[in-house]
Amino acid sequence: MRLEIDWTRCDGHGLCAALLPEAIELDEFGYPIIHAQRVPSGLASRRAVASCPALALRLAGK
Amino acid sequence: MTETMTRPAGVWSIGAPRLLAGALGGRRLGVREHLSVHGPPVARTRETFTSWCSAVGLRGRGGAAFPVAAKLAALPQEGAAAVVVNACGGEPGSVKDRALLDLVPHLVLDGAVTLAAAVGAEAVVVVTHDAAAAQSARVAAAERRDRPAVSVDHAPGGFVAGEGRAVLAGLSGGPAVPPGRRRHATEAGLHGRPTFASNAETFAHLGLLARMGPQPFAATGLAHEAGTMLLTVGGAVARPGVVEIPIGTPTDVVLQAAEAATPTALVLGGYHGAWVDPARAHPLAVTAETPVGAGVLIALDSRTCPMGELARVTSWLAAESAGQCGPCVFGLPALADSLAGLWAGRADAWDRAQRRIALLPGRGACAHPDGAARFVATGLHHLAEEIAAHRRGGCGRPVLGQLPLPGGDSR
């Protein structure tokens, strides 16, 4: 499972980093940096996707 | 400030010209002259085009260097709805696409029209940011006996608006910005329909390949990448302009022919490209270790401050962001700020610059942040001594603008 960001939608709300602190940190401007190898599979990631206020986060692949 | 080269200062070749046959020195080939140089266009099937493009290793010439055979193979079985010729060439150091439409529009149209017939496309669209090039293409389309369904779209635009998917978005009626979801034009291009889109030079080579066949086409160039390529040579050279070279020609040969006295740095591939060492001869190819992007070779010499040149172009790159993606909108101006800091000799600017460069690649809808990061990273790598000099109080040289930028005219 891979987390993808539609950068044209992301507004740097930062909810994803709050929900998945082990996998996502924020850069100096508040935009997410995803550490792909630390993305948990299953519910936690799906919840982060569903919580994104800009609908910018999505899950791709297996 | 160096005058921006909006039209090629010179048009010349190393070895026998193909694309520019009959057009050296800047002569435009009308339909009659074109036919007498090249003969009539030759129709080929989609299968023939695909196998010949694969045999000669033809790659797109807009900068992404995508294999043309793979693009053809990616079209659905029933073919494409449209063929789009991208002559936007938003790279400030590149005028070769404009030169092609200006001088040999029929060769570009031959490639586009024969390929359109091969893939069943009803429409051919030529798109350019340049009014004179658009006019030349319109005149050419109107004077052809094959009466092709060619439309010419002229829309002013900047760097990112010339990117392939941004061009298709603009032609489809939306803003000319790269879409957030990565869908290939071969699936969903012009108006969401399967589209074969490539750079103007790619089509000119297709026009030649359809006539010549793969063996004669491969008589020059490299084994895995045959034929010629167009370069725009600029900066600190006595003979700037558009030059056709056999693929694989080394940089030193081109620089000598362009009468570059003593280059201290080279920019290859434009402002999404890389700074390279002028002391080494780099083979110029579409997919070499140091790729040429949309065919740009710029020389700097010791009269200008290269750190200032790099900082100036980085500010321009920041301003050219399409404004859609946060890491680009905020990251590029921040990087430009770090580079201004390096120029001013600030001690902490180096670490800031490196940190900001690392956070650009892969974090945007298009390759603008990636390309800008590569350009700045290679520049900083190349300019270590210069940066040290600036930390000691400056290099004492002015910024001459040897790296061309669009003037205050259109923006």
Descriptive notes:
The complex is a heterodimer of chains A (62) and B (411). Chain A has 62 residues and is an alpha+beta fold. Chain A is 23% helix and 23% strand. The radius of gyration of chain A is 10 Å and the shape is globular. Chain A starts with a strand and ends with a strand. The longest helix of chain B has 18 residues, at 326-343. The radius of gyration of chain B is 21 Å and the shape is globular. The chains are: A alpha+beta (62), B alpha/beta (411). Chain A binds chain B through residues 5-12, 27-31, 33, and chain B through 177-181, 324-328, 330-331, 334, 359, 363-365.
Strand count, sense and barrel status of the largest sheet of chain A are: 2 strands, antiparallel
Helix content of chain B: 25-40%
SS element count, helices of chain A: 2
The largest β sheet of chain B comes out as: 6 strands, mixed
**Terminal CA distance of chain A:** 4 Å
Total of helices of chain B: 15
- What's the total number of strands of chain B? 10
Summarize the amount of helix of chain A as a percent range.
10-25%
The chain pair with the largest interface is: A-B, 14 and 17 residues
Q: Can you count the beta strands of chain A? A: 4
- The run of helices and strands of chain B is EHHHEHHEHEHEHHEEHEEEHHHHH
N to C succession of SSEs of chain A:
EHEEHE
N-to-C terminal Cα separation of chain B, in Å? 17 Å
Short descriptors:
heterodimer, A: about 60 residues, alpha+beta, two-stranded antiparallel ribbon, 4 strands, about 25% helix, B: about 400 residues, alpha/beta, 6-stranded mixed sheet, 4-stranded parallel sheet, 15 helices
In short:
Chain A is of the alpha+beta class and 62 residues long.
